[in-house]
Amino acid sequence: MRITGGLVHEYMVCKRAAWYSVRRVSFENELMILGKMLHEESYKGEVKNVFSDNISLDFVRKKNGEVFVYEVKKSSKMIDAARIQLLFYLKWLKDRGIEAKGKIAVPKEKYQMEVILNEESKMELEKILKDMEQTLSKNKPPRPVWRKICEKCSYAELCWA
Q1: Average pLDDT for the chain
Q2: What is the pLDDT of residues 95-133, one digit of tens each?
Q3: d(CA 28, CA 22)
Q4: S-S: 144 plus which of 3, 30, 125, 159, CB 3.0-4.6 Å?
Q5: Rg for the chain, CA atoms, rounded
Q6: CA distances from 103 to 71, 90, 120 (A)
Q7: Would you state the pLDDT for residue 54?
């Protein structure tokens, strides 16, 4: 199992959906397509989708000698999932000798939030990654838990049919 930032985000939103994703069961709905379009339309002057080792950073900006990794989101509703995803990227960079800070950007809300990898957030991330490995390696998916987001989820029929 290869853990990526996208998988970390998905796990934080719904463990069951992440379990399906690890097994390459994926569906794309209109909300996912809209999110991709927003990403492409926002921050047009930036170099986007920086790929390396199965890691895709939305974009990176250097300002006053500091490196900022940006994660662009359609809405701030899942801000904690985005924060953990960004911590994953920051740790990945740090492990390769690159000190960076993160920013979550929500263009439609004109909102940005800075994310910093410190000892406390690193311990939080490590705990989540350990839980991910245990949960996602099981033979059965986690039990579904009904939440408002289930109404628009592309996996809804797998969970609730």
Answers
A1: 84
A2: 989 899 999 999 889 999 999 999 999 999 999 999 999
A3: 15
A4: 159
A5: 16
A6: 6, 10, 18
A7: 60
Instruction: Report pTM.
Output: 0.82
Whether the Cβ atoms of residue 60 and residue 90 lie closer than 8 Å to each other: no
For CA atoms 82, 56, 49, 65, the dihedral sign is positive
- Domain architecture of the chain: domains with CATH: 5-160 (3.90.320.10)
Where the chain has pLDDT below 50, the residues are: 32, 48
Kindly give the pairing relationship between strand 101-106 and strand 66-72: parallel
Question: What tokens appear for 17 in the block?
Answer: 């959906």
Residue 132: half-sphere exposure toward Cβ, Cα within 13 Å: 28
- Full DSSP string of 38-87: HHHHSSTTS-EEEEETTEEEEEEEEETTEEEEEEE-S-STTHHHHHHHHH
- Judged by DSSP in three states, 29 sits in coil
What amino acid occupies position 30?
A: E
Type of residue found at 1 = M
DSSP 138: S
